[in-house]
Amino acid sequence: MNINLPVTIREVGLRDGLQSIARTLPTECKLEWLRGAYAAGLREIEVGSFVPTRLLPQLADTAELVAFAKTLPGLLTSVLVPNLKGAQAALDSHADLMLLPLSASHAHSLANLRETPDQVVIEIGKIRALRDSSGSNCQIEVGISTAFGCTLQGRVEEVEVLRLLQAALDAGADRVGLADTVGYADPQRVSRLFEKGFGVAGEHLACAHFHDTRGLGMANVFAAWQVGVRRFDACLAGIGGCPHAPGASGNVVTEDLAYLFASMGVTTGLDFGALIALRARLAQSLTGETLHGALWRAGLPRTMKNLE
Amino acid sequence: MNINLPVTIREVGLRDGLQSIARTLPTECKLEWLRGAYAAGLREIEVGSFVPTRLLPQLADTAELVAFAKTLPGLLTSVLVPNLKGAQAALDSHADLMLLPLSASHAHSLANLRETPDQVVIEIGKIRALRDSSGSNCQIEVGISTAFGCTLQGRVEEVEVLRLLQAALDAGADRVGLADTVGYADPQRVSRLFEKGFGVAGEHLACAHFHDTRGLGMANVFAAWQVGVRRFDACLAGIGGCPHAPGASGNVVTEDLAYLFASMGVTTGLDFGALIALRARLAQSLTGETLHGALWRAGLPRTMKNLE
């Protein structure tokens, strides 16, 4: 692995962050977030989910956000899609990428999508057929959720994760990723599972998604990077988190992740000042929510002028 | 390196934590902390500093704490010592280990000890002679502070850190460690500097001391562990921190560090329930101080019964 390759951070706060908090952020706030994230150098942003509005009213304006995001040159606009109907909405919106969750935990899959993992794989095949017949070049990314364990089921076997990686690719996913949905991962397991995952999926394995629930988020990111992962999901101010662990962190924090890579001399294309300024505006919009992150408080070391 | 070797966590909250906050904790509270830390399985505890009371009134009861700590079977009692006078006090107290700070940053050394690093090395030689002539078997550990950068000076060159590691050993240190005093380290630099440090000091390099100022504490611990470090300083609830960065974390958090290793299957001998209960009592004693850590909030994953 070439350690000099740049790293891509995909901002997922507008989806994974906002779906986890009760309030609905006004569309104008979300658009400001989008504009700010783009201005700070983020070039992949997950703007929402095409799920029924009654389930996630917080994300009801996803199509509007995609439409705006598409006006920003060079931005890869990503949306989450739980099923064929959502995929049709994603295609209609002209999003660049749809993320399909596939739980490695049987129990989580039933609770989240009311389908077994293998039923979801069949749905992925249908989504691929729909995408191909529509003539769209929207990418299909399958995120294997609960890949490191599950709050419902407990252990998740690596062999099952690897089986589903292969099944997702066989069903037509363009790329796949591994997600520690509930913050159970540790860096050793991260190294091992991604190494095995590369053995199955090669360069199609192209995303790591970590939550910082138990303080290991950054160590897990580092471990994944060490074995070759170059694309990470993260969330400004680490909003979100698990409703079963009040106050626990959500996704790893975008600005801290940007600092991690900058401190190691790895390019992310992100601008520190712009990220921190955006974080401050977000904090105003999200008064009362628990925010996370360390860098906004401590600032850059005096040995570093910007994230470069 | 054998990844199955156990890891030792040295609790330094009573010294590095308490010296960084303004209030003076009553001796009885400190004794409870000591008892609780011992009951949770900690077998190395830094109980204070032998520095002039006018400089650190918070630590004026260090001799009393050493006396109590010495009654706990199998506990290695450590104290910080800035100079020959402090070393005499440490020997008088019958502490098991004295930690001597040696700044790799010239500017920090002058600000902190009013001596250049090389003057401090001469002092270390005198302390070694004093220890030997006293017939004590108190270990002498030199901690190279600001080893990863300095808020005063900025960059600290690796070659200078390695030169001081060698100089400390030549002057009579029994062991040496590397400390990221101001939270400038990143995991790549940690790997590199410890690997080079092992090249100079071999197994005498036996401690890593990280602060979590910018969110990289756990990633740095993991990186140091990967290259063979098996002994880490940490601080319950992560108290302390840098007076120049209000709200920034102090040392890496003992209970989170214990979780990191437990999650990787590495033995620390620590008991989760006892650590969390102690943290809760500490939080009462330290009302108003900013505490840190993630595990106390989220709890163990359901796949883990205790830190084992």
Tag the structure with descriptive keywords.
homodimer, TIM Barrel, 8 strands, 308 residues, alpha/beta, 42% helix
Summarize the structure.
With 308 residues, the first copy, chain A, is α/β, with parallel strands linked by helices. Chain A has helices at 13-17, 27-39, 62-69, 84-93, 106-113, 117-134, 158-170, 187-201, 217-226, 254-263, 272-285, 295-298; strands spanning 8-11, 44-49, 76-80, 97-103, 139-145, 175-180, 205-210, 231-234.
Morphology call of chain A: globular
Largest interface, per-chain counts? A-B, 43 and 43 residues
The arrangement of helices and strands of chain A along the chain is EHHEHEHEHHEHEHEHEHHH
Beta-strand level of the residues of chain A, as a percent range? 5-15%
CATH superfamily of chain A: Aldolase class I
The CATH architecture assignment of chain A turns out to be Alpha-Beta Barrel
- Unreliable residue runs of chain A: none
What is the CATH fold-level name of chain A?
Answer: TIM Barrel
Please report the distance between the alpha carbons of the first and last residues of chain A.
21 Å
Largest sheet of chain A: 8 strands, parallel, barrel
Number of strands of chain A: 8
Q: What number is the mean pLDDT of chain A?
A: 94
- Give the helix tally of chain A: 12
**Oligomeric category:** homodimer
